[in-house]
Amino acid sequence: MAILLSMPGIASHSQSEVIKKNIKKNYLVSAEVKSNVTADQLKQHYGQIAVFIKNGYTAYRITYNTMDTDGRDVVASGAIFVPDIKGALPVLNYNHGTLFPSDENNAPSYLRYGAELGIGKLFSGVGYLVVMPDYIGYGTTKNIKHPYGAYHLIAGSVIDMLRAVKEFCEKNNISLSGKNFFSGWSEGAAVAVATVKALEENITNEFKPTATVVNAGPYFSSGFVHHILDAPKPLTYMRSYVWVLQSYNWIYNINKPLNYYFNEPAATDLHRSTEAYVSPDPQKLFTETFRDDYKAGKESTLRNALQENDLWNWKPLSKIVFCHGDKDDYVPLFNSEKAYTTMKDKGADVTLKVFKGHSHSSGVINFVQEVFTTFGGAK
């Protein structure tokens, strides 16, 4: 974990070449070469895990056509890493975790630093064509609100990026093997599962999922809300939970004033900034009216929105491995347990890997190793 979190920028040959696309199936808008990295350069930054690295890659910043939450056409962005090897490449879609608006410059397409970008580079060094979307709200769409917590909506833009990558590969004579792997961490884990669900249930003729490994995702939104409202003590990550509630309020046209949900001064402060300080104590933060209304079943629109973003009650057709630390106080373990138990009962090929003694982020090496084990390398 220390290696990934502290990894410096990799020295590379910066290029300004922009490959503009003008083809009939116009998901892809542009692809800009950002760097070329050799296997030896890549190995310098991964310590003992460098033994997995077999090749270098070319990194691109791509833009593509998709839609925002209101159905309006927008041009979104992301990063892709193309291995410098011959032969048909498997695709690995890796989805990043929570980025608050002030962290916008850590979105993948900026190709800067960060543990998750390091994970994407590592997977490309193993031979996967890695696809890392920014999501709506970051990169080229940074002036649009990110639909935080609306995993199915985010998954739609991820699938459009996969379509753009396919066009990019066709235009540049890059062969794809037809194997499609999915992964992600925290918010990205939920996005990955929502993407797989959409591909298996609604878009069955594109990007058939091969296998998925996800870490510490919030798959049980409708249960998570009770964990928050009923918490007997302050919650360290309350700011993230509040952001989900604010997102659902506008995405699903609930449109309640913030002082309905939150006591002062939080209601006023959150008007000014999504990242405003809020009390971590749910009994002090949330109004008694809201808590009572929700528990009495009066908030049906919000309840339906939470259930719409549940990701546990379905049967995947491909293998899914849920990874989770048992000391996770950001996204508690019950999220993965609920998904695993329900899917297993439905006859799905699912596995739960509990990382003993690990928090939300400390099990990253265990998670990466599970990806290598489950996906079996880029074959």
Describe this structure in words.
By secondary structure, the protein is an alpha/beta fold. The protein folds into 2 domains: 276 residues, Alpha/Beta hydrolase fold, catalytic domain (Rossmann fold); 88 residues, no CATH class. Helices cover 36% and strands 20% of the residues. The chain has 14 helices and 10 strands. It has a 10-stranded mixed β-sheet, with helices on both faces. Helix 4 packs across helix 5. The longest helix is centred in the middle third of the chain and has 21 residues. The N terminus is likely disordered.
SSE layout and pairing:
Layout: H1 2-5, E1 18-20, E2 28-37, H2 39-43, E3 57-67, E4 73-83, E5 89-95, H3 115-125, E6 129-133, H4 151-171, E7 176-185, H5 187-201, E8 209-215, H6 221-229, H7 238-251, H8 258-261, H9 266-272, H10 282-285, H11 288-295, H12 300-308, E9 319-325, H13 334-345, E10 350-355, H14 364-375
Parallel strand pairs: 5-6, 5-7, 7-8, 8-9, 9-10
Antiparallel strand pairs: 1-2, 2-3, 3-4, 4-6
Helix pairs in contact: 4-5
Number of domains: 2
The dominant shape is: globular
Overall CATH architecture of the largest domain: 3-Layer(aba) Sandwich
Approximate strand percentage: 15-25%
Could you name the CATH class of the largest domain? Alpha Beta
Relevant CATH superfamily of the largest domain: Alpha/Beta hydrolase fold, catalytic domain
Strand segment tally = 10
- Give the low-pLDDT segments: 1-24
Number of helices: 14
Strand order of the largest sheet: 1-2-3-4-6-5-7-8-9-10
Secondary structure class reads: alpha/beta
Helix and strand run:
HEEHEEEHEHEHEHHHHHHHEHEH
CATH topology-level fold name of the largest domain: Rossmann fold
Major sheet description: 10 strands, mixed
Determine Rg (CA atoms, Å).
20 Å
Quote the distance from N terminus to C terminus.
26 Å
Mean pLDDT across residues: 91
Q: What portion of residues is helical? A: 25-40%
Quaternary organisation = single chain
